[in-house]
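Quick note —
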Amino acid sequence: MKKVELVFVPTPGAGHFVPAVEFAKSLIHTDERFSVTILYMLSSPSPNAELYNKSLFASETHLHFIDLPPVDPPPSHLLHKSVDLYAVLFFESFTPHIRKAIAHLMSNPDSPPLAGLVLDFFCLPLVGMANELGLPSYLFLTTGAGLLGLMLYLPTRHAQISTELDVSDLDLELPSFANPVPVRVLPEGVTNKHGGYATYIELAQRLREVKGIIVNTFAELESYAVESFADGQTPPVYTVGPVLDLGGQAHCDRVDRDKIMEWLDAQPESSVVFLCFGSMGVIGEDQVRETALGLERSSGQRFLWALRLPEPVGKLAGHPDRTKLTEILPDGFLDRTGERGMICGWAPQMEVLAHKSIGGFVSHCGWNSILESLWNSVPVATWPLFAVVKELGLAVEMRQNYREDGGDVVMAEEIEGAVRGVMGADSMVRKKVEAIGEMSRRAVMNGGSSSNSCRRLIADIIDHSH
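Predicted structure written out below.
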């Protein structure tokens, strides 16, 4: 039986790194011919990431990590011009180290032959290096099929209109969306005049060079988009999701975890709304106050709020102390809500969403949070996320109030309405989420759509490696 190895090059943020590692584990468990080496581009120390990696070392014999040497980041002023440009330049600066690591694997007689590179979206420029080394490239997209549809569309538009999009433009007619898409709901980079748009065009053009596109979604969730990719021009698309860290190994603060779960155990079934704002989780003080006011107006609603406040540069956001909370929350909020609410700095999101006491989820949702809420059949209220709110009808929308100073905030009445919307036992959103949640769990079972798609991917990887 021929053994083969894949090299994964994920970016280090939890929302990208953890799904990539979980997918690598899934490949290894599906087909014993595979081993995976993950190249780790460490940007800053992360205790949770280190614990996660160490736990994998102990449990996965066919999964290996290589810590790449640190690099100097791009000039800081670029970060203020375009986050996307800064990210791509930063990850590109690892290229010499990545090439060296791959060359070592290719020359090592004890290593199985390399079958290809699996690249993060922001690492697509590495396709050129892979071509030079004679290795197939595959994209692992940690977002849904909606972003893929946008990226496939951009080069076509760029050939006709070679400037960035503008929020005043007419809604876009994208082949992967059933409904016209407002420019304002697209990633900020496509309207960025300072390198963001150019970065997206570069990434989009590289898309056509990969051997396959692996997407963390499932066919039943985004059927319209997935069907649009069968156009004879797009590389094969493999829907392999939902890819989730079901064990919660990526977050290992046991003390906080135990306090949270003990509190949830004491709450009635489906009575608690969970508020959490992504893996970064930091929101401004204005938004904190509006969220608190919205919770107070929600007629005694029980809540668990994972709240991390902005910290000085160089210090990680952590558990908010009572003194700081008292300063920014409405006067007396903690005393008035102490018996029905809990505020924590961090929460094991997947485990919380799976708890019987959770009835709804309020989030500035990234794709991983959406998949986790669907897996657990928990309805979600989210900042405008077009693909989930309008296209799929699987979330309650919270509108942002855009301010003259360039910031934006969701007002208390929006928070209140969203909480009532997701906690309503008979809401249409809840019924749809329960149905699609069952589909998500079936998709990854043997014979399910994602399981079958993964097996097709495996067969194609083996075929391309000959």
